[in-house]
Structure formats: C-alpha cells, structure tokens
Amino acid sequence: MARFAAGRLLESLVVLAAMSFAVYVLIGLMPGDPIDLMISGNPKMTSEDAARLRALYGLDQPIVVRYGNWLTAALQGDFGYSRSYTQPVLDILLPRLGNSLLLMGISLAATLAIAIPLGIFAAVRPYSPADNAINLFCFAGISVPSFWFALLCIILFAVKLGWLPAGGMATVGAGSGLDPLQYLVMPVAVLTVTHVGSFTRFMRASMIQTLRQDYIRTARAKGVGPARLVVGHAFQNALLPLITIVGLSFGSLFSGALITEIMFSWLGMGKLMYDAILGNDYNLALVGLLFATAATLLGNFLADVAQVAVDPRVSFAAREATQ
Amino acid sequence: MTVAAVSQSPSRRMWRRFLRHRLAVASLLMLATLALASLAAPLVERLLGIDANAADLFLRMQPPSAQHPLGTDELGRDLLCRLLYGGQVSLAVGLIAAVFSAIIGTAIGLVAGYAGGLADRLLMRVNDAVIALPMLPLLIVLAAVDLGKLGLPDTVVQSEHVSLYRIVVIVSLFGWNTVARLVRAETLALRQREFVRAAVALGTTPRSIMWRHILPNAVSPIIVATTLSVGQIILFESTLSFLGLGIQPPTASWGNMLTNAQEVIWSAPELAVWPGLLIFLTVIAFNFLGDGLQDALDPRALD
Fold first, then answer.
1. Cross-chain residue pair A154–B265, CB shorter than 8 Å
2. What was the ipTM of the complex prediction?
3. pTM confidence score
4. Which of A196, A311, B89, B271 has the maximum number of C-beta atoms within 10 A of its C-beta?
C-alpha cells in the first residue's frame, strides 16, 4: 500500500515536472514581450537600454537556462511578481484558489447528491420510460455548452426575473450573513448541471454491473427484498468505481469552473488565469496553470490511493504489480 | 432467434439494430439536414439578396422579417446566414479534428498494444497524464500562442484561415487518448487470438499484422469513439471561440456569435438563443449517434 502510494506520487511529480517545463515554454511563446511592455511607456529608452534590461532579467539566455533559474527560485517558494497586480504571485493566487475550491467543492457535493440516487433509480428499472427520461437528461447535461447555459440563466434569472445577481461575489455594503449565498446559486447550478450527466450514467452502469453479480443472485434467492438488495448489498460495491471517476473529474471541474467563473465574474483561479493570459501577466499565468495542474494531479493521486485502500481486489493487484 | 434472422448478412443486421435506436436515427437526419443547410449558405444569401458579412447599423437587432427570416444581429447582419456559415465552421472543425485525433490515437494504441513492454508503459503513462490535465486552461494557453514566435512565416500567421487550422491542430493534439486506450485494449486481446498467432508463425511482419489483421477488427470502437469525440470537439471549439481565442471574426462561428450576443444581453437577449441552441443540438446529436452506433456495431449485441 505505502509502496504503491509512493510509486504513484513519484509518477505524479514526474508529470508535474514535465508539465512545468512545457508550460514555461508555452508561456514564453505567448504574444508580446516583457521588456517591450516595460519600456513602452518611456520614450527616452534606447535600444541599448532595452538590451541591458534584457540581460539584467536574464531574458537573453536560452530557454533551458531561464527555466532552470525559474525552477530554482520556485522550489524555494519564490514564484515571482504579477505584472498587473504588482504583488507576489502567491499572494494573489491563494485566495483565488480558495474561491475556486469553494465553488468546485459545493458543485461536486451537489453533483454526487443528485447523480448517485438518480443513477441507482435508473439502474433498477433499465429501459423503462423513467430510465429513458433520465438518460435524455444526462445527454442534455453532457452536451450543453456551459457558457451558453450560463448565459441563458443570466438572461432568465437576472435580466428578466431579477431574482439573482448576474455576477460577482457579494453585494457592496451588505456585510456578511446570507448575502454571498445568492451569488453562489447560479455558478453552482451551471457547474452541477454540466457534470451531473456523466456521473449519473456512470453510477447507472456500475449499479447494473453489480446487480448482475452472483452474490446478488444468491441474496435474491435467499429472499432479500429489492430495496434491501440495492441499499444493503449492491450499493457499496457499485460505489467503488465512482471514486476513480471523481478523481479523474478534477481536471474537467477546473475547466468547467474556468468558464463558470468567467461568466459570473466569480473571483476564482480560472478567471484569474484567463485574465492573466489575455493581459500578458506571464508569471501569474504560468503559476496559475501549474497550480491547476498540480491540484488535478493531486486529485487523481488521492482517488487512486483511496481506490486501493477501500477495494481489497485492487490492492492485491497493486501489490502484485509493485513486486 | 428465427431462421430469417440468421440468414441476414451482418451489415444488414447492424443497419437494423441502428434503425431501432430511434434517437440515433433522428440525430443522423438532423445532422444531415444541418450539414446540407450549412453548405447551402451561399445559396440562401443569393436567394435573400444579402451579404452575410455586410453590416447595416440602421438595421441593428431587427425582429424576423421577410428579408431576414431570423432577424439581424447587433451590427445589422443577417442572423440566418451567419448561423449557416457558423455551422460550416463548427462541423468542419469537429469532423476534421476528430478524424485527425482518431488517426493519432489508432497509431499510438496499435503500437502500445502490439509492442508492449517499455513502449506500452511509456505511452500509457503519457495517456494517463493527458487525461488528468485541466484541459481548458491548457487549450487557452495554446490558443494564445504567438505563431510568429514559432518561426512560422508571416503569410501563414496572417492568413485568413489560420485560426481554423490552429484549432484543428490543438484539439487533435489532445483528443487522441480515448481512441488510443480503446485500440490498445482491442490490440492486446486480438494479439492472443489464433489467427494472429498463425500470422506470426507464418512470418508476417509486425506492420502487416497490425495493419491487416488487427486494425480491421478494431474498427467498431474507433468509429464509436470518433463519433462521440466530434461532439466534444465542437464544444471545445465553440468555448474557445466564445472566449475570443478560437475562430476570429468576421468569420462567423456559433461560439463567437455568442460573444457578441453577450455584450447586448440587456438590450437584445434573444440573440443568445439560436447559436447556443445549434451548438447544443449538434453536440447532443453526435452523442446520440455515437450511442446508437455502439449498440449497432457491437457483435455481441442481441437482436
């Protein structure tokens, strides 16, 4: 178990290291040039001054050397300054990461709270009208463009009905209390609707699979009622594969949160990254992207370890594999 | 199973199974209609006597009329024509990128599954890593990359269709992993079958085994996965275009039409309806189609 976890952790770190280099190169390929941006407001700047600045910041060196320097500083906790906020990158990033995780956490909880009962409900009556209706709803959720769905929600609930604020995180001057909650409703709803479909379909497939097992047939033959069969016997085993899917969904949650945050001006990391990329804030974009990647890899890692911890069949296979 | 069912050819039985999936059939018809209508966009322009890109600021956000069946947008351009041209872009990007990623995925899956060993482990680790990444932030960075800095000539960088090619390349680079995983699994299973082992014993080269014995037997999952990925790609394309990083105006795409609609959301909210509805219907149709094909192409499925 510990050996499996250590191996998986090492793997995640290798991926993160490879990604950090790839992202570093990509950010360097974005339009604009940091020195040009610095000197654009100063007409007295000569090209010699620009070259001197370039050498001062080490920008005249090859990309591998620059990456090495950046990595050395980053490993010591120095991620540089944000150009547009003129503050250390981490000071801006961490509160934003908290906001994103809040949005994602509530949505994930809501998604699971809907998907698990709905998937089981569909699985115990396959190909019935109710199952078909749920299937249709799932496909709709998977297929709807989240930005359009968000736009429709804003048009309906903010523009036409005026029930909910169109965006932001709190009413100015309203103090705390329940006020921030109304700003959460639409972002959470959008993120949930666009994710609930795949979870429900997965839960349904997993439950149908489990109900076909021999031990379920045995239990049924011994006279266990249908409700107890599902809740008491099948539920736990059908839930196991869902752990993997939750772990793998972190990447997609970050992507979904990015759109949702932009649409509702939610001050999370997705919106921060997007603004940083469009605003040539190289350091911020770089570190934001790496944080999103690291969080996603961490989610996958935890899901894999949890899977091994709770499922003796998997942990046996993992032990075999590492020996 | 009756005698009649046995005597049917496999392709006929596939077709019959597909026809039974009513949503998939309806989706196929809808997609065909949409594709034909999009291709007919210049014809519609001619018939209505208008130009899809001609702005008329005196006719902004008009309601539907005889000349503009769906009304006009915030610059006075005909909404119907722009929707049809946007359809050309979305369908073309979706189909082309899906085929490219299927080709990449098939090659990777075949090699990983057949060669096994270190190559397999490495390719599957890369596959896992790609699946785990936060896709959209990465696509946004890729879409923002300055092609001039990559050393591409100016004529390419400034050409009209560069945003289209760029999106196809980006999505193909990240879209291959489902196909790769499926083809690898299929290859691993087929490698153990008698006919493949017989071919090996007869001295057939690995390339020929992969190409002539394994690939034809792995076609069904490739077709299903590719169909499903068209929908995903259209979603990515429209999202990037909506964020201003995909298809660049004045070329119409459903995504960038929604960008403009968002700006006039308080004065003309109805402009946001059509482009999004078309994205939604197209994506859901490709998903239903893939679902129907999966049932139809599965040889283990019962009639």
1. yes
2. 0.84
3. 0.86
4. B89
